[in-house]
Amino acid sequence: MIPLPFSNRWPLIGMLHVPPLPGSPRAKQGMTKIIEHVLADAQTLIQAGFDGLMVENFGDAPFYPQRVPAVTVAALTAVGGLIPTRDLDATPYTIAYRGVPVFIEFQARW
After folding, report:
1. Residue ranges of the domains in the chain?
2. Model confidence pLDDT, tens digit, residues 57-97
3. Which of 3, 15, 60, 93 is in Cβ range 3.0-4.6 Å of 24 for a Cys bridge?
């Protein structure tokens, strides 16, 4: 069994659904607004007692069935990479890219 960084045997993981990112069909907001939205949600979940976070590009639906634009992957990585800068350093989190037909976890921080 892989040891996890939670003191709770049944940790509560909060999902951060990122709005549509640059490169996705429904993208309308700039990165500043997207980052503000995600970091505010992260803060709310941590204050509510969640043990960890998962950042996902759910707003990018419909997902790319084949190759994902590099700008979309870079944007999701940038958003998730800012989580530790907001006094959330002790909170384990993972960044996942959701696409069709696969779900790829490309970065984990524990």
Report:
1. 13-109
2. 888 887 777 777 788 888 988 888 887 655 555 677 777 77
3. 60
Nearest to 55 by CA among 6, 22, 21: 21
DSSP the chain: ----S-SSSS--EEEEEPPPPTTSTT--S-HHHHHHHHHHHHHHHHHTT-SEEEEE-GGGPSPPSSPPPHHHHHHHHHHHHTGGGTT-TTS-EEEEEE-SS-EEEEEEE-
Residue 41, pLDDT score: 93
Which amino acid is located at 93 in the chain?
Answer: Y
